[in-house]
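Researcher: Please predict.
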Amino acid sequence: MLTIGQLAAYAGVTVRAVRHYHQIGLLPEPERDASGYRTYGAPAVVSLIKIRTLADAGVPLTQIARMLEADEATLAEAVEQIDNRLRDEIDRLQTSRKRIRQLSAGDSLVLPPEVVAYLERLREIGTSERMMAGERDGWILIAARWPDQVREWIPSKLAQLEDPRVVRLYQVLSQLMEAEGIDDPLANEAADIMVELAEQAEAAGELDFGGEGRDEMSFALLDDLADAADKRAERLRDLMRERGWDGWTRMQRVQKPAG
């Protein structure tokens, strides 16, 4: 006959676990002997080992009693249900692990691989990390709004980086964001490049965004993101307006007052 401590040690559980199983009715609690102690025989050891084995396998305690008393067919069905639940839980945990690993991957956490590759190309041409942060946030908005189209737009964005003017624009804007105060020579250079590129795009019919162009809210959000990225953005917009253009994401000519 075993004491509760000996029983727990034999089955590989804690005394606290044995008492909990008594409390919930999973393991019968023996009567006290003449000395006032509760002692356990071989059946209790076997029952406790079965309970521990099922619990270690992931079976909820609320289902263990039913499984211990089930016939072979009922037990097989219960095991199948538990196996399905565990498989679903494993899939969920594996997805969570993948997302956790992505936290160390920076840009790839919420962006498709094609956009991540584009952002890496921006780093290669000398874009500052402050500039990259705004660029990344913009692509997060774009990918959330147009998840199917975003991959199709990346080849043309990469092609634009073959133009030295575009490369210079990113470099100038990066320098502007790192400078103290307003650097007017750099701001004017950036405005000149953007206006030149806008006029070229207009002549080529590339300022027509199709159906996406009618999504006023999304373009307003993207422009607001650019305005909020740096306090000097408004100065740069003023310089572009002086040159007859306005906007960030969807540049358009400034309408001259009538008369």
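Model: The first strand starts at residue 245 and ends at 246.
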